[in-house]
Amino acid sequence: MACLLVYPVAALASGAGAVGENLLWLALILMSARLFAPLAQRVGFPAVLGELLLGVLLGNLSLLGIGLFDTIAKDPIIGFIAELGVIVLLLQIGLETRLADLVKVGVRAAAVGSAGIVVPFVLGAFIVGPWLLPGQTQNTYLFLGATLAATSVGITGRVFRDLGKLSIPAARIVLGAAVIDDVLGLVILAVVSSLVQVGSVSVGEVSWVITQAVLFLGGSIWFGRLIAPHSSRWLARLDAGPSMLFAQVLATGLALAWLAHVLGLAPIIGAFAAGLLFEPLFLKDFDTPRIVQDIEPMLRDPESRPLMDRLQPVLSRHAGHQHEHMIEPIGYFFVPVFFVLTGMQVDLATLADPQIIAVALGVTAAAVIGKLTAGVLAGPADKWVVGWGMVPRGEVGLIFAMVGKQLGVMDEAMFSVIVIMVILTTLLTPPVLTLLLKKT
Predict the structure, then answer these.
(1) 60: helix, coil or strand?
(2) Where are the beta strands (DSSP E) in 110-264?
(3) Exposed e or buried b for every residue in 397-432, given b needs 16+ CB within 10 A?
């Protein structure tokens, strides 16, 4: 009996199989990302660029005969943790964004988001594709257009967040436009995939996809904000401590991300919607942070009046935003994994063919121009910031390209072109956006 009890403990302690290996990979990714991020920041780039470049480095060490990291990029457990990373990131961005601020820029965001889909799609499917890649099928060009229409809000959102610029009008327009962009991009992907598979698609099918997206976004935000004050009050009666508040916020983010996935939408849309539900006012029934509880009694002394006037705004900020501060450490763990893994999808071997590079540069130029054109509709907000905020394709572009490859409409050359375009738009945006934001 003693042996039976000791065996599973020994097996767990030894880290048997994939679990033990993944523990090492996660440790390496986290520490390497934290070491690379400050290096990027010292030369004026955001931390996310350091994490992306680290991923590119680790994913291509095999070119130097080092195959140690080859299994990480394809590992399903690491992939799931990375997906959690982008979900947590969009939940954080949603928590730090006020719905009223998004509503104020709603018309502009809708215009930018719509143009950010239509212009790149037309450029890719009907102009740049046939010109730079002659002889391909129309379905191939349609998939190229769909890939150019994609936007990776995770990368742009991270840059805004790192620089403390989430509250500026341009950032709110980009976030609102990116949600619309994701919805319309998924509609285009569904339509193009249906055309490839069955040769036709009905207006009813397109309408249904759009209806699902609108109902989910509008319904989850409206219904969620309706019940959030009541659910917070009920949960606070059971336990008003930080653990219950943390569980409510994170569980809501995961649940809405799952619901978005079930409906065929990107899970990050659900996570962002969840973040918009929790206004500080809705969470007033929970205990204030311990540091606030410890300091407030000291400020009741009349002699502390001058100090109280200075400290009160700080205490109010901590008390009203403690749910944001609770989620932040989770982001420290999960978010770097997502960006490192995104960088590891880059295959630098594709850069060996000059013809592919030339075509890819042309496609990248079209990808950038298409999104910068959408920024023109940003109104009084900084049009360059909005335009560049929509530029990165990141994991969304790679997902679109993978779907096209699985359906057989993209050969290796076309896929390499798209991968290079995704690399360039993903790596160019953080430094350019940082430079633009530092001028605002």
Answers:
(1) coil
(2) none
(3) bbbbbebbbeeebbeebbbbbbbbbbbbbbbbbbbb
Model pTM score: 0.71
With contact defined as beta carbons under 8 Å apart, do 188 and 117 qualify?
yes
Rg of the chain on CA atoms, in Å? 23
Residues in the chain: 440
Structure tokens, 3: 């042996």
Task: Look at residue 189 and give its three-state secondary structure.
Answer: helix
Q: Which two tokens stand for residue 118?
A: 């239509």
Asked if residues 398 and 419 have their Cβ atoms less than 8 Å apart, the reply is yes
Residue type, 119: V
Q: How far apart are CA 41 and CA 39, in angstroms?
A: 5
From the first residue on, what is the mean pLDDT of each consecutive set of 10 residues in the chain (440 residues)? 43 53 84 81 70 83 81 83 87 78 77 90 90 86 87 77 82 83 72 69 68 78 83 84 85 91 78 81 69 64 63 61 76 86 77 84 94 90 90 74 76 79 82 83
